[in-house]
Amino acid sequence: MGCDRNHGLLAGAVIGAVLALFGGILMPVGDLLIGKTIKKEVVLEEGTIAFKNWVKTGTEVYRQFWIFDVQNPDEVMLNSSNVKVKQVGPYTYRVRYLAKENITHDTMNNTVYFVQPNSAIFEPELSVGPETDNFTVLNLAVAAVPHLYPNSIVQVVLNSLIKKSKSSLFQKRSVKELLWGYKDPFLNLVPYPIVKTIGVFFPYNNTVDGVYQVFSGKDDINKVAIIDTYKGKKTLNYWPSYCDMVNGTDAASFPPFVEKTRVLQFFSSDICRSIYAVFGSEHNLKGISVYRFVLPPKAFASPVQNPDNHCFCTDREISNNCTYYGMLDISKCKEGKPVIISLPHYLHASPEIKESIEGLNPNEEEHSTYLDVEPITGFTLQFAKRLQVNLLVKTSKKIEPLKRLTRNYIIPILWLNETGTIGDEKAKMFREQVTGKINLLGTVEIILLSVGVVMFLTFMISFCACRSMKAK
Predict the structure, then answer these.
(1) How far apart, in whole angstroms, are the C-alpha atoms of residue 269 and residue 248?
(2) If 0-12 CB within 10 Å is exposed, 13-18 middle and 19+ buried, where does residue 54 land?
(3) Among 13-22, 29-38, 300-309, 362-371, whose mean pLDDT is lowest?
């Protein structure tokens, strides 16, 4: 008797086929709509989601500092012993909380100009102690003398001022002084006009980074947020060859539709160069699927390991004829001051660099740099930028505190961890406005296709079975 329902079974099969077809059509059409919406919203122009977040990030960004307290300063100066250090921290500051300034749109070239104000607010609740905590650290001014003034006669004159000011190779300084600046007693005695204040990040507060000129993405979405010029130039004048180029974005976002095979290039004024990250793993961040891109050891490798890095080796004396790895001499970027950048605790660095320093314990989890990027929009929703500031200390027969040194040192001063994670409210908005809608559309597509195929097969099998039974 059920076989008299052939027309109903056939109608069910047709409905199933239509549903499956509709689900199948919805996939490319939906992807097209998503692509169109994303391309519209990630452009850096008034009214887009990207522009609003770009002008002032909704993510709270913190810089944590760990200071390397030198335990045996006298032994180092008198006997050229290994430097024993003990890290103390974190001392935490809130940064990047100010909106971008001087934003100017160049509609002719589809670019945007801006500067990023620098400011830091101490966060005592997130720190191990007050900014007034004192530590024994390298004397930045004394250590820099042989590099800034190689002339022996000038060194003799400066040495008399060092002695007069009772300055030594090491000094006691507070966290606040070391980071943001202090009046140096030795520099204070120098008769000709020089900056008398010195600090690892001096000057910082009330300064700006830029001017940046970045592509808005209006004419080409694949160029959105990519830096065109920095301080009016496409190069830095620090490095030879292509190493001097300003490449990529500022790492806050990247062009959309990020694939795992992509190498993410970004520029960091902190290390005076462009660098890159490669895909490491997938993560779930507050209900949002992200790709974690990591800074590979290859980025700070020696030219022997990575020939592409040959133009980052500018001082063959420091790097043992460019064979040492895991460090970057940025002295040219710092007006000749002997500043060496590395990953914290010399992670991925040559063993020779660490031989003269005791108390370092590098590990990947705490000391590596990563970016968690939402692949559809290209927005960086979480990041950890970690780097260490070191100073090259060279022996000098004319400078009293350096006389007894029988070897050169690369002495760590501090390391920092700059982090930012999308807030709960922003994450909820992102899920609702972006990933939630995309996931819903994907679910609808799969349901329509699945239900349609199941209906079509079920009704067609039943129809064929009934036809077969009727034929008998």
Answers:
(1) 13
(2) buried
(3) 13-22
More confident residue, 468 or 212: 212
Q: How confident is the model at residue 329 (pLDDT cuts 50, 70, 90)?
A: very high
Same domain (yes/no): 416, 443 = no
Number of structural domains found in the chain: 2
Range of the domain at 170: 59-422
Q: Do the beta carbons of residue 134 and residue 174 sit within 8 Å?
A: yes
Report yes or no on 173 lying in a domain.
yes
Which pTM value belongs to this model?
Answer: 0.86
Same domain, 266 and 333: yes
3-state secondary structure of 401: helix
> pLDDT: is 287 or 293 the higher one?
293
**Ramachandran region of residue 286, left (φ > 0), alpha (ψ -120 to 50) or beta?**
left
First to last CA, the chain: 14
pLDDT at 452: 45
**What pLDDT, on the 0 to 100 scale, is given for residue 471?**
56
Whether 461 and 359 share a structural domain: no
Amino acid identity of residue 255, one-letter, is: P
- pLDDT of 445 above 70: no
Residues composing the chain: 472
Q: How confident is the model at residue 274, as a pLDDT?
A: 96
- Can you spell out the DSSP letters for 306-319? -GGGGGG---TTTT
